Amino acid sequence: MKISRFIVNPFGVNTYVMWDPASLEAAIIDPGMIDPDEFKAVDSFIEREHLSPRHLINTHMHLDHIFGNLYIKDRYGLDIKAHKADEFLGKTLSEQTKRFHLPADVTDHGIDIPLNDNDRLYLGKEPIDILCVPGHSPGSIALYCPESGFVITGDALFQGSIGRTDLPKGDYGTLIDSIRRRILTLPPETVILPGHGPETTVGKEISSNPYIN
Questions:
Q1: pTM
Q2: How confident is the model at residue 104, as a pLDDT?
Q3: Is 112:70 a contact under the CB 8 Å cutoff?
Q4: What's phi and psi for 195, nearest 5 deg?
């Protein structure tokens, strides 16, 4: 599996395009694009690499990770896939945007296809395993690609830090339990690709992350 990162919107979200080089099937993860240049960068990359988008996946539905959902859905004919417990966030996107005083023109929206713990998606023949990691939001998920050795953790776990839990329905104890049970039990060499900031590995976070040691 190959993956490319686009840093988008005022919150510095990592939007990922992940693809199988054999089939060229692709997934767009957390499309947080908010302005024409950001949309163009992702579209141009997909066109240049001759990719065929198959999945639109949200690790969670806080506003900064879903600004571009409807654009990607309409442009590529994709269903919005996320955990049902976060649908209330998508349906209050405009309210969230006003709360942060952002000028973005957004539309509230829900989920088309719910993802649940231990579901499995595919790009070509390579699996993507869905791991529920609630706490930052009630429906946070991680996307684990066991054959390629990486996991996209959304805002659950960062390099040296964890996601905030003071937003609606966040819970610190739940988040710590999720990280310890679902992410830190992966092989230590597994690369962590977070929703913000640089990549890290499971082993590095086990040894040095002050929030989970």
A1: 0.97
A2: 74
A3: no
A4: -75, -15
